[in-house]
Amino acid sequence: MKLKLKNVFLAYFLVSIAGLLYALVQLGQPCDCLSPLRAAAEQLRQKDLRISQLQADLRRPPPVPAQPPEPEALPTIYVITPTYARLVQKAELVRLSQTLSLVPRVHWVLVEDAESPTPLVSGLLAASGLLFTHLAVLTPKAQRLREGEPGWVRPRGVEQRNKALDWLRGRGGAVGGEKDPPPPGTQGVVYFADDDNTYSRELFKEMRWTRGVSVWPVGLVGGLRFEGPQVQDGRVVGFHTAWEPTRPFPLDMAGFAVALPLLLAKPNAQFDATAPRGYLESSLLSHLVDPKDLEPRAANCTQVLVWHTRTEKPKMKQEEQLQRQGQGSDPAIEV
């Protein structure tokens, strides 16, 4: 028994010595743990660098925003508006004038359907603060709406728009405001803005740099939520319309603008008073451009920035009753 214990002790001693010698040898070998340590150190260094960059950005002054062009450098927008006497005329002209007052570099060409300028319109223009030209031309009796006829039976504002085109071309005299037409070489845009529509001022930014004929959708027109060009790859490929889609230009009057040099280069381009219903816009545009060359605006014609609104005709039954009694509203108070 004693002999066996002695042998076990000896074996244990020899194994321990061998293990100790192995450990002493390993102390002199390179450690495999250096690679993970190096990777962790690199991550810390990158984080420190990113923090330093962010701190430098915070100390740096903000960039100077791009300055818009000075108003004098902008092409002038000639806004042509036909108007006629009615109870809501002043209300609608005031609304439009205040929209235009938000637009830089605009020239309002207001054309009355009258033999001569009326005090109401002359006074409104003088008080508007806008650069304006006041014109007047009476619609011939044969072209005027007859009693009880709906407004769509005959085109309206034809003589007035053509009078404005004549003035731009130096062929018509003004009755008030700026009487001289733009000199040759003037860069500008012509827009036909009826007095009963509603306009976003953003629309005028869209049309400002028109090169030929620019187009966009019009809301609440043609029995649709909106009507306007269909665009693919930045080009007009069709029109969203429900009425007479085969028209050359199925556009509303508020849905396009024309570069002034293009209009002046086409002296015979004007609106045709005998054009069939819905073809009035086409009668002008067909002289100016091909449909494929129209310039889509308003985010490729996906934004509506003008609406074909109409003021409800006021009901005057109580006024008429008071007038019959000799107690009507004071006619000296302008409405």
TrEMBL record:
Which pathway? Answer: Protein modification; protein glycosylation
Cofactor(s) needed for function: Mn(2+)
Q: Where is the signal peptide?
A: none
Which locations, inside or outside the cell, does it occupy? Golgi apparatus membrane; Membrane
Name residues in a coiled coil. Answer: none
Comp. bias regions, Basic and acidic residues: 312-322
Q: Where is this region: Disordered?
A: 312-335
**Chief location:** Golgi
Protein EC:
2.4.1.135
- State the membrane topology: Single-pass type II membrane protein
List UniProt keywords, sorted A-Z.
Answer: Glycoprotein, Golgi apparatus, Manganese, Membrane, Metal-binding, Signal-anchor, Transferase, Transmembrane, Transmembrane helix
UniProt catalytic activity:
3-O-(beta-D-galactosyl-(1->3)-beta-D-galactosyl-(1->4)-beta-D-xylosyl)-L-seryl-[protein] + UDP-alpha-D-glucuronate = 3-O-(beta-D-GlcA-(1->3)-beta-D-Gal-(1->3)-beta-D-Gal-(1->4)-beta-D-Xyl)-L-seryl-[protein] + UDP + H(+)
Does the UniProt entry include the keyword Protein biosynthesis?
no
Domain of life, per lineage:
Eukaryota
What protein family does this chain belong to?
Answer: Belongs to the glycosyltransferase 43 family.
Q: What is this protein called?
A: Galactosylgalactosylxylosylprotein 3-beta-glucuronosyltransferase
Q: Which organism is it from?
A: Microtus ochrogaster
For this protein's source organism, the top of the classification is: Eukaryota, Metazoa, Chordata, Craniata, Vertebrata
Q: Which gene encodes it?
A: B3gat3
